[in-house]
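Hi there, hope your week has been kind to you so far. It would help a lot if you went through both lines with me. No rush at all, and the record is pasted right below:

***
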Amino acid sequence: MNKVGLIFDSTAIVPQEMAEKYGFEFVSLYLDIDGTSHLSTSIDEKEFLANFASYQSLKSASPSPQAFVDAYEKQFAKGFEKIIVLPLSSKLSATHDVALIARGLLDESKQDKVIVLDTLVCSLGFDSLMQSMYPFLDQDLEAEALVKIILDHAENSTILFEINDLKNLYRGGRLKKLSLILGEILGFKPLVEFDDGVLNVIAKNRNRNKNVEIILNKIGELSKNFKKVYVNHFAFNLNDAAVRIILEHLRQQFSNVIINFTSRICPVYISHVGNSGYAIAITAHN
C-alpha cells in the first residue's frame, strides 16, 4: 500500500478500477431535484439523464464536514500515513472550505497529516489530471513531492466543451438572457472553457468546425510546449462527429498526446451544463 491516500468529492470523474487500485475515497455532494435533496452518489444516473428535461429546479450543495471527517478516518484506518484531499475548484463550490473545516475536527495528531489542495480542477478534469498522475502514484512518493507534482500538472489543465442547450448556462448565471435568445434563434454552439477554476464562454459559433479548430489549436500549442499532453474525451452522443474529427486529427498530428475516454459525467456537473454536447479535458506536463 502507498504511504499517501487520496480523497476526492463526488464530482471528480476517476475510473472505478483506478479508485480501487489506489484506495481512493469519495465524499458526496448533494443535488436538490425539484425540492428533494439527494446525495449525488445515490442518484441513478441513467434515470437522471432520461428525466432531465422534466426537472424544474436543480441546485447543488456541498458535503457536510462530517462526511469529510468520515472519509479521513477511513483513509487512516486503511493504513495511509498522510492524506491529500482534492475537492473541486473553490471558485465553483464551498466544498474546499468544508474539507478544511473537517480537518480541524480531527484529533490534533492527525490534522497535519491531511493536506487539502485547491487545484482549480473539476469533473472530468480530474480524469485527465489523474491519468497524468498514476505513474507518480506508482512510485509511492512522499506527500510533499506528490503535492508539488499535482499542482504543477493542474496548472496546465483545462476543459473545453460544446453545449447544445444554452438554458442551463443561463440558469447558472454563465450566459446573459440576450445571448440565450439569440443563441436559440441563430443556433449558436457555444464553446465553454473551464480554466483557472471558472467557466467562461470563449466562442459562440454556428459552425461546429470553428469550435473543433479552437480545440485542436489549444492542444497543438500545449503539444509544442510540453512533453506529454493527456486528453480525455466525453460525449453524450458516442457517435458525435465533432469528437470523431478531433480524435482523428490528434492521432494523425501529435505523437506526445495520450488519448483516454471518460465514460460519464456526474449529475451535479450535468445540472450546470446540461445533458447534450461533448467535452475535452486536457492536462499537460514536462
Q: What stands out?
A: The first strand starts at residue 4 and ends at 9. The CA atoms of residues 8 and 106 lie 18 Å apart.
